[in-house]
Each structure stands twice: as structure tokens, then as C-alpha cells.
């Protein structure tokens, strides 16, 4: 495999990722299902009073997340050509921090797909930078926790100002 082939593969992956982001953004913004998910996240009681089946939407969201998690696990295992019971350990804090840094609110109903992608880029850039600098893993966890805490504090402060 030549360097040109690797570059072509990387550009193809970027195009696929951009296409996936576009599809999910379209689904979240333009479809009835996406609007129902936002309504349910923002205020479940109001969503139910507007005739949205909370139970069905919740099942669909959790089912789709289960399918996507299984796909992520398959891709992760195929990348390393092995599977262990500890694969993916401590990926959850990175995902939560990426969502909060990207503008998703823990109170629900706020956030965009692109913001979460940007948050993931920020968190992975932080992780890669600390790895390249040779920073100990325990210090990395502390820094990530501080970033997560700062994002949550910022969200709470801006949300309380808006009320």
C-alpha cells in the first residue's frame, strides 16, 4: 500500500464521517422523530400533553443507541483484530465530556449534533496532546475531570442566568 492509497482511504473515511453527521443532523432537525426526541428531552410532561408517545420514543432512542453501540464495538474489535472484556473501559467519561463541551445540556432539550462532534474533537485533541507530552494517565484523568466540571458549571451558570 502506497502513501497515495493511505491518503485516499483517509479522505474516504472523512467523507463517510461527514455523510453520517449530515444524516444524523437531518434526522434530528427535519424529521418528526427528531423533533419528538428534542421535545421529550426538553420537557417530557409537555411532550406527553402534546400527544407524543413517551414510551415509544424512549424505546426507539434506547434501541437505536443499543444498535449503534453494538456497531461501535464491532468496529473497535475489528480495528484491533481482537476482543477483550475490558475493551472500551472508561470511554464513557470522554463521551459525556465531549457532549457537554459541545453544548449539550444535562437538563435536556438543548444541543446539536455538530456541537457534540466539535466537543469530541476538543476532548480527543486534549487527550492526544497529553499523550504526546508524556503526561501520566492519572493526571490526564484529572485534567479531563476538570474540563468536564468546567463545562457543567458553565452550563448551570448560563442556564440560571437565562431564567
Summary tags:
163 residues; mainly alpha; 7 helices; 79% helix
Description:
There is one protein chain. By secondary structure, the protein is mostly helical. It has a domain at 90-163. The chain contains seven helices and no strands. It has helices at residues 3-30, 32-42, 44-49, 54-80, 92-101, 113-132, 137-162. Helix 1 (3-30) packs across helix 2 (32-42) and helix 5 (92-101) packs parallel to helix 7 (137-162). The longest helix has 28 residues, at 3-30. It is globular, with a radius of gyration of 19 Å. The chain starts with a helix and ends with a helix. The mean pLDDT is 84.
Question: How would you sum up this structure in a few lines?
Answer:
The chain is mostly helical.
Helix/strand-derived category reads mainly alpha
Q: Low-confidence stretches at least 5 residues in length (pLDDT < 50)?
A: none
Q: Enumerate how many helices there are, as a single number.
A: 7
Q: Averaged pLDDT, please?
A: 84
Secondary-structure element sequence?
HHHHHHH
Main sheet attributes: strand count, strand direction, barrel closure: none
Which percent band covers the strand fraction? under 5%
Termini gap: 58 Å
Number of strands: 0
| Helical content (DSSP H or I, runs of 4+) | over 70%
List the helices and strands and how they pair.
Blueprint: H1 3-30, H2 32-42, H3 44-49, H4 54-80, H5 92-101, H6 113-132, H7 137-162
Helix pairs in contact: 1-2, 2-4, 5-6, 5-7
Amino acid at each position: 500500500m502506497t502513501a497515495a492509497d493511505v491518503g485516499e482511504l483517509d479522505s474516504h473515511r472523512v467523507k463517510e464521517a461527514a455523510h453520517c453527521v449530515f444524516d444524523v443532523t437531518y434526522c434530528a432537525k427535519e424529521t418528526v422523530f427528531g423533533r419528538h426526541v428534542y421535545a421529550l428531552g426538553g420537557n417530557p410532561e409537555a411532550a406527553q400533553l402534546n400527544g407524543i408517545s413517551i414510551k415509544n420514543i424512549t424505546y426507539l432512542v434506547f434501541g437505536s443507541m443499543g444498535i449503534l453501540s453494538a456497531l461501535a464495538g464491532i468496529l473497535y474489535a475489528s480495528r484491533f483484530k481482537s476482543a477483550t472484556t475490558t475493551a472500551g473501559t472508561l470511554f464513557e467519561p470522554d463521551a459525556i465530556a465531549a457532549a457537554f463541551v459541545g453544548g449539550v445540556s444535562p437538563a435536556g432539550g438543548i444541543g446539536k449534533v455538530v456541537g457534540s462532534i466539535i466537543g469530541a474533537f476538543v476532548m480527543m485533541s486534549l487527550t492526544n496532546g497529553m499523550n504526546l507530552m508524556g503526561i501520566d494517565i492519572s493526571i490526564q484523568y484529572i485534567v479531563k475531570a476538570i474540563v468536564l466540571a468546567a463545562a457543567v458549571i458553565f452550563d448551570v451558570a448560563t442556564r440560571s442566568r437565562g431564567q
